[in-house]
Specification:
4-stranded antiparallel beta sheet, 2 helices, 4-stranded mixed beta sheet, 278 residues, mainly beta, single chain
Amino acid sequence: FRFAGLASGEYRIRAEGGLGTDEAPLLADGWVDVEAGATDVDVVLKRRDDVRDVGCHAAEIHGRVVRASDGAPVEVDFWSVDADLVRLDEGVDLERDWLPNHVFPRPVQRSASGPLPAASDGFHLTGLGAGTYVVRCTRRGSAIALVGPITLADREIARDVVIRLADEATVAGTVVGPDGGVVDGAWVFLTGVGPLSDALVAGADREYREASGRGFFFVNGTGRRAAGGAFELGALPAGVPFRLVALHPDREPLLGEVLVLEPGERREVDPLRFGPPR
């Protein structure tokens, strides 16, 4: 291949197509240093599942997925494992404020050309920049699993990272008014404690009021609209400090208790009691 007219600098190399076959393996992204006028630049790319520190790779995270109860390997599909880059503003605590709002991945459109690699208990996250990451695994029937934080320098490789899948925890309850009567139309979700979570609640409350409680409402992925005043939030991991929140277009936000769940626990909480209509 030939790219003409490049100025001196560092360039990212990506090769796509023919994914997931031995004849045309999925390759890891790489970075190459180019000097203007050079015609003999070596571009050495390696397979995405190659954990060696060779070639022009970016930062990478490699590991495996196991069952928490006995360490047995668990196969997951190509899309099940991803990584969130952690960026903490001043005053934001990773465990109590950032993490509870990043359990669920944001909805994104993803695509790939050619056949995907088969399901496997190994995972390979490549093409990463320097930074701190939390690795996430989503698999139907298990709690969302989080590993981290993992801090990588430029082009550093992290190996032998283990994701342990446990039974999902669930929070369930009802939403009522001051008189104990059922309140319909509430959106219930989980957040954390701190300035990031406070800003999220305030913004979500404003948007929910402007929409008059209609439509799909993402917030941070944990939420559900209470049906007949009842709600159930599932696929939750253990050990994360979640704070219950309920929104309603006609009432002030309701901030509930902070919950730390056990693997597989189903927590029935006391009714969430709204104040009078605003």
